[in-house]
């Protein structure tokens, strides 16, 4: 297996092992699609190098669905157009045990900031503060899921002999969550605490880890589970590369190798 194929397998394994953001209950009216676990943990697909993380996850999930004998994938990545203007996209329409389902696929990284809002949901924001869990929930409820009922979606539904009123809606919402450094735990009343993946820290405080080694994965590799077989950086070159990213207001995900041999994911942030 070549290096590219091996890395795609690691990405797929990371995707499979990422928990759902909530389980066993409706969340703001959104219901997770519970996919029965498969024995297969490999993917046999050609994934383009320039396929971004979100689209890569969609390919991974569709591949997982196709392996399930009770699932029939009818439509994937359907562009919904009003004449020549794209008004939205439907990630997937499938049948599970002959029940038609509109599925939206989400994979996110959120950091906990208690200063934002007043509820558990308000506090989870994107690494660069231009995204949030609440914003995504509202987009799903108000734009993405209602698209199934749009008159512009009818031609696609007609092509697979479905009516919008017969289609139920689910999401597959996976996430990795990060809490502030030196905070032991935050409240998980609605969200799945198994999504907790590490901590985040401001760049000005990173020097306390100068005796550690570091790895800065490409964004498509953010879903990977940590392992030791990477090209580790010493503190100085890591500091220089990270500063270049932060100057562009991009908070990178980092693997940090402690002197004890423990490896952990962290975000280094430019904001405070």
Could you walk me through the main structural features you see in this protein, from its secondary elements to its overall organization?
It is a single chain. With 272 residues, the protein is α/β, with parallel strands linked by helices. It has two domains: 3-197, no CATH class; 200-269, no CATH class. It contains five helices and nine strands, in the order H-H-E-E-E-E-H-H-E-E-E-H-E-E. Strands 1, 2, 3, 4, 5, 6, 7, 8 and 9 form a nine-stranded mixed β-sheet that branches. A hairpin with a 2-residue loop joins strand 1 and strand 2 (85-96).
Task: Compose a concise summary of this entry.
This protein has helices at 3-17, 53-66, 133-144, 154-159, 235-247, and strands spanning 71-82, 85-96, 99-112, 124-125, 168-180, 196-202, 213-215, 253-257, 263-269. The protein has five helices and nine strands; from the N terminus they run ααββββααβββαββ. Strand 1 (71-82) and strand 2 (85-96) form a beta hairpin.
């Amino acid at each position: 297996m070549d290096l590219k194929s091996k890395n795609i397998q690691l990405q797929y394994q990371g995707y499979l092992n990422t928990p759902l953001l909530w389980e066993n209950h409706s969340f703001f009216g959104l219901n997770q699609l519970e996919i029965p676990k498969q024995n297969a943990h490999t993917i046999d697909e050609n994934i383009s190098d320039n396929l971004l993380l979100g689209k890569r996850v969609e390919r991974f999930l569709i591949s997982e669905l196709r392996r399930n004998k009770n699932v029939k994938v009818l439509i994937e990545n359907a562009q919904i157009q009003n004449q020549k203007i794209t008004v939205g996209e439907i990630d997937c329409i499938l049948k599970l045990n002959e029940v038609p389902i509109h599925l939206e696929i989400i994979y996110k990284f959120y950091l906990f900031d208690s200063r934002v809002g007043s509820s558990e949901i308000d506090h989870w924001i994107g690494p660069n503060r231009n995204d949030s869990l609440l914003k995504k929930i509202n987009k799903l409820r108000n734009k993405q899921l209602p698209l199934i009922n749009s008159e512009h979606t009818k031609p696609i539904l007609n092509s697979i002999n479905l009516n919008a009123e017969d289609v139920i809606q689910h999401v597959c919402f996976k996430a990795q969550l990060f809490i502030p450094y030196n905070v032991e735990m935050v409240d998980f009343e609605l969200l799945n605490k198994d999504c907790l993946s590490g901590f985040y820290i401001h760049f000005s405080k990173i020097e306390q880890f100068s005796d550690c080694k570091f790895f800065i994965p490409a964004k498509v590799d953010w879903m990977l589970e940590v392992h030791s077989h990477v090209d580790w950086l010493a503190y100085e070159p890591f500091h220089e590369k990270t500063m270049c990213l932060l100057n562009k207001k991009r908070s990178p995900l980092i693997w940090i190798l402690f002197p004890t041999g423990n490896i952990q994911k962290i975000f280094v942030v430019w904001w405070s």
